[in-house]
Amino acid sequence: MLPFQKTTVYRKALETLQQVLHEYTRQNDPNLAGRLQEEAFDVTTNLAKAFSKLKKDEQMQLKSSIEGVVSMIALLDLSQQSKNNISSVKRELLVDKLRCLQSDIENFKKTQKKILILSAKMGHGHMSASSAIEEAIQERYGYDYDVEIIDFVELLSSTMNAFSKRYYESSVKFAPNMYKLLYESSNKNVQIIKLLNQINYPFVLSKIKKFFEEKQPALLISTFPIWNYLAADIWKKYNKDAKFISVVTDSITIHNSWVLADTDHYIVANEDTKQSLIDLGEQEEKIKTLGFPVKLDFMENIDQKAFLKKLKLNPKKKTILFLPTSQGTRKNQKIVKSIMEFDPHVNLIIITGRDSKNKPKLEKITSGRENVRIIGWTNKMSDFIKAADIVVTKAGGATIMECIAAAKPMIITSVIPGQEEGNAQLIKKYHLGIVCGSRDNIAEHIDYINKNRSTFDRYLTKQSNPKAALDIAEFIHELLEAEV
């Protein structure tokens, strides 16, 4: 079903219009029944267009739907003058239902609840989790909720956002020890983060307050912790009974900044992360272990043979997916050479993303290899992960959770100090893959996983939760419905 078909007003419209048509098609008045069918068709068509936003002017489509309902009421009034067997009581009942439908459509935008997800484009995980939640809410509840993802750091200050991104990307790539020092110092002395929020508070108060007033959200969700204290404080100061949810994108070793804000509920990926929050002083009843939100595509199986044939790869051979994001060029080349030397005939798929410098160098060393495919950016990452037998990647939160959702063993080639160490611990603790040492041979790890595949599959299946985003969507819906 499409999202508009799951929207409450649309479903109510279908139910009401079907009742009217059912009653009047039973009568010996084909002209009236035909007119009602035409109007009912126009009502549902315009609603579908409005909810799907196929037209720029959404309000015009809703207005056309209302006009169609009004026309049907007029036709029922006209039916009083014709000879039919519908009693006046039943006709009035149908008219009342149409009037209720008219009111529901007129007030749709007022009753549609707004959900703001505050995130940041620092790495891949925060925005990935946000998008998965948005997708799941729409999948489950159609357009009953209007979900909007906000780059909150950009909203606070585009200059600060640009600087933060450059610093993050440069430090994790060229000076990981410096990044580790900053991460650990801010984690140990978390009041630094709080002070940073407090210093910026008077400068952004008016801007953020106005933003919240314009958006009128029913709920705030955050997937990025650094500015949660500021966001939650402004939100709750001017909104009675406001709710604030933190979706924790870290695993096990979470940063203390997650617990600075006045948070009503935490959503975590696993029991280990829940315990970490409890250790930081959070109440257990506030923490919901619902899993890490990944794209709903991970709930669907893939025809691996057909997928590999489409890439002109041999489906009878093992397939290794290598994601060289945020690693040094030499290290990437070394990993690729090691894989090819281990098995010259193995299918090797390399996705370089938007790293334009990496791709040509990898193409050079794999030139002439018919079993190697190098791909730039793709929006089909879920298919590539599901089609692989082993994924070689860094310990990024979203990628790790996507591999677990797809039950694919991982070989972790690098770990960002501090930030990704918990992800590496998760893999080691639950035997979900192998975390490489600096001098490890990738080929040996591939061989070990192949020989012990059934063991890895068993552990991965226990941890896999591809429907986590839907569970989170249901929790959000229940929370908002309880406030009605």
Any idea what the shape is? globular
Q: Which structural class should the secondary elements be placed in?
A: alpha/beta
- The N- to C-terminal Cα distance equals 27 Å
Quaternary structure annotation: single chain
Average predicted confidence as pLDDT: 89
- pLDDT below 50 for ≥5 consecutive residues: which ranges? none
The overall strand count is: 12
What is the helix content? 55-70%
Main pleated-sheet profile: 6 strands, parallel
Number of helices: 21
Strand order within the widest sheet?
A: 2-1-3-4-5-6
Share in β-strands: 5-15%
- Cα-atom Rg, whole angstroms? 27 Å
Q: Describe it for me?
A:
α14 links the parallel β7 and β8. This protein starts with 7 loop residues before the first helix and ends with a helix. The strands form two sheets. A six-stranded parallel beta sheet has the order 2-1-3-4-5-6, sandwiched between helices. Strands 9-8-7-10-11-12 form a six-stranded parallel beta sheet, sandwiched between helices. 56% of the residues lie in helices and 11% in strands. The mean pLDDT is 89. It is built from 21 helices and twelve strands. By secondary structure, the chain is α/β, with parallel strands linked by helices. α3 packs antiparallel against α4, α10 packs across α11 and α14 crosses α19.
Core attributes:
six-stranded parallel β-sheet; 21 helices; 11% strand; alpha/beta; globular; 484 residues
